[in-house]
Design goal:
CATH superfamily: Ribonuclease H-like superfamily/Ribonuclease H
Oligomer: single chain
Strand content: 5-15%
Distance between the termini: 57 Å
Structural class: alpha+beta
Strand order of the largest sheet: 1-2
Helix content: 40-55%
Number of domains: 1
Number of helices: 6
Largest sheet: 2 strands, antiparallel
CATH architecture: 2-Layer Sandwich
């Protein structure tokens, strides 16, 4: 297998935001320098622009155990809550990282790392971002729909029932 040598120099890092359309198997991806609320909102705007306006979008978010270090709480800030309130077609669900649909995104990241990033030498963040974009373009040229272990209707149905329950309490 490929290994990184001890003299490999890091020329900066990038944060890849990725949204997997589980039905089509396609990915909307965007590289950014940071992972804060502002970048998350930029990514939500991209999803909004690249998806048919008549569709309701269910975003299933999971956080890794090292959430504090990676600032995954960015999607729970007031700015993000306000943006979501102004865009009612976006429905956000939080789930444990062990859930199967989170595994699909993790699998995409693992494949990206193994097939494209691990063997690469990138002299700049720009080169790294380009390699990621090229990989995602190739992935989207031949997408594979995600096979659910739990049907989407079941998951969304649970959400709708929970929402109705909350509304009846108010």
């Amino acid at each position: 297998g490929a290994t990184m040598t001890h003299d490999y120099k890091r020329h900066g890092t990038t944060t890849l935001f990725a949204a997997l359309d589980v039905k089509a198997g396609t990915v909307i991806g965007q590289c950014m320098l940071r992972h804060r609320a502002a970048e998350f909102i930029r990514f939500l705007r991209l999803i909004d622009k690249q998806t048919p306006a008549e569709l309701d979008l269910h975003l299933i978010l999971g956080a890794k155990g090292d959430a504090k270090r990676h600032n995954y709480a960015a999607h729970k800030t007031e700015a993000v809550k306000r943006w979501l309130a102004r865009h009612p077609r976006f429905h956000v669900h939080f789930t444990p990282t062990s859930a199967s649909w989170i595994n699909a995104v993790e699998g995409l990241f693992a494949t990206l790392t193994k097939r494209r990033l691990k063997r690469g030498v990138f002299r700049s963040v720009i080169e790294l971002n380009q390699a990621i974009r090229d990989y995602l373009d190739a992935h989207n040229a031949d997408p594979k729909p995600f096979r659910w272990t739990a049907p989407a209707d079941t998951i969304i149905g649970k959400h709708q029932r929970g929402k109705r329950l909350l509304e009846s309490l108010h």
